[in-house]
Amino acid sequence: MTRSACFITLEGLDGAGKSTHIPWIEERLRRAGVDLLSTREPGGTPLGEILRELLLHRPMDLRTETLLMFAARNEHWRTRILPALEGGQWVLCDRYTDASFAYQGGGRSLGAEPVRILEDWVQQGRGPDCTLLFDVPLETARERLSQGRAHSDRFEREDAAFFERTRQAYHARAAADPGRFRVIDARRGIAEIRAELDGILEELLRARGYAPVSAASAPPAASGTSPGSPA
C-alpha cells in the first residue's frame, strides 16, 4: 500500500492537558516512520507568531480577533500545512479551525456562520483528517490552569460562562462530524489516555500504509512543552 499523508489536530479547553501528550504523539509517529511537521495555532509561521502575540495579549474587537485568527491561519495553511501534506508529510497541529468555532463562535458568541464563511474561503473544503478533542469539565480545566501558569493570556482570564460556551461549541462540532473527531476523556491518568491515543494512531497509520511500532517499545517522551501553549 502506498503511504499517504495525514492531518491531525488537537483541540480542547485551556487546561484540558492536550499539550502534555504532544511530545509523546510526535515520538510515536516518528518511530513508525512518519515524516512529521508539528506546529501550532495561532502561529506556525513568522507572521503567525507575531499575530499570536497580538491575539493573546492585546484587547481588540471580536471581528478583528476573528479576522486576525484567519489571517494567521491562511498564512499557516498556504505556506506550511498544505505544502507539507502535498509533499507526503503528516501534520500535527495544536489547534486549528475548530478552535475558532469554539472560542470565537461559541465562547465569544459570534456564532458559527461567520467562522464557516472564513473557513470556506481560506481552506476551500480541505481540513483535518482526524481531530483529537481533549475534554474535561470546566472545573478540572480551571484547576489545572491555576496550578501550572504564572501568567495568563486574555483568553485564559475569561469567566466560567465563556468556557462553558466554548466547551459546548466543541461538543457540537464533534457531534456533527463523528467520523473525524475522537473525544478523549482527559480526566483520566496519563497512561490510560496514551493507551487510547496509541489505538487511534495505529488505526491512522494502518489506513495510510504504515506498519505501526508498538508504543510499548517506545522510550518515554521528554518532558517539556509542545510547540503550542501548554493547554
UniProtKB/TrEMBL annotation:
GO cellular component, one term: cytosol
Pfam families reported in the protein's UniProt record: Thymidylate_kin
Family according to the record: Belongs to the thymidylate kinase family.
GO aspect biological process, one term: dTTP biosynthetic process
Catalytic activity: dTMP + ATP = dTDP + ADP
Organism the protein comes from: Castellaniella defragrans (strain DSM 12143 / CCUG 39792 / 65Phen)
Sequence ranges assigned to domain Thymidylate kinase-like in this UniProt record: 10-196
Role summary: Phosphorylation of dTMP to form dTDP in both de novo and salvage pathways of dTTP synthesis.
KW Kinase (keyword) present: yes
Designated name of the protein: Thymidylate kinase
The enzyme's E.C. designation: 2.7.4.9
Keywords per UniProt: ATP-binding, Kinase, Nucleotide biosynthesis, Nucleotide-binding, Transferase
Binding-site list for ATP: 12-19
Keyword Transport included in the entry's annotation: no
GO molecular function: ATP binding; dTMP kinase activity
InterPro entries for the chain: P-loop_NTPase, Thymidylate_kin-like_dom, Thymidylate_kinase
